[in-house]
Here is the input.
Amino acid sequence: MSEAHTATHADHSGEEQKFHAFINLALVLAAITGIELVLVYLPFNEAIIFSVLIGLSLFKFISVIAWFMHLIYDRLLLTLAFGTGLAIATGTVIALMFIMDRGFVDFEAITAF
Amino acid sequence: MVDNKKLFMWLFLGSDCMFFGTMISTHLIYRKLYPESFDPTSLFSLELTSFSTFILLMSSFLMALAVSAMHKCDIKSFRRNTIGVIFFGLIFLGCQVYEFTEFVHEGLTLKSGTFGSTFFMLTGTHGVHVAIGLFWLTCMYFYSFTGKMDPHESAIDVEVAGLYWHFVDIVWIIIFTAIYLIEFI
Here is the structure.
């Protein structure tokens, strides 16, 4: 009885800690979205703004997966299950962006088709 | 021991990453090959899209709270948070419908060119995902009133539905940057 009570108390304590983590993360995500909106209007170098936007976007992406989707609290197998698909998707996007460059594409063949 | 439902959902989400990855790359490649074909900056409303993004992020937060409530066997809190998720999801879909209607009135349609085709295909597919998630959560919300929902046994079902909803959110995070924000740099 006492052990069961201790286990339940520990579970609830863990959920309380997660609750605070969720609130902090929600605030950070909202703030980042606001920063992103302001960033595109700032008169800075395009490459810098582009890099910062990609960085902020990746931070939001990884944060939601890690905390809201509980991946850091779960087993490694789940990370591998999702990570495999994500890695293939990312690789495909990067590869296609390089392959389909203006220098490699025969525009006449496309328009003729 | 990993729950089968959870493992299956993570595998499905991994495959869905590939699905959205191809659509995002298709849009970006056409933008790169034909940059002069269309200028969306006059059409896009970044304020509205940022608001949609904020709403979807907050719905994700409420979904995380709903899952947490179910783990604590607090079904009332689960209902409160789930109805919040559904409400925010409906606002997001409303914003998307309003945006699409505006674009069509301005002449951007599925048939108007490569930009319209790839843009509507990508954001429309994401919208369908949101609608499916809303249907799923609404069913779950009403099911919680039948008395058949045991918090201990149903916690994993809520968690799986939550994973799907969070995935819809992370896909939008990428779309927001890759399709909308980058156009304004």
About this structure: DSSP finds four helices and no strands in chain A.
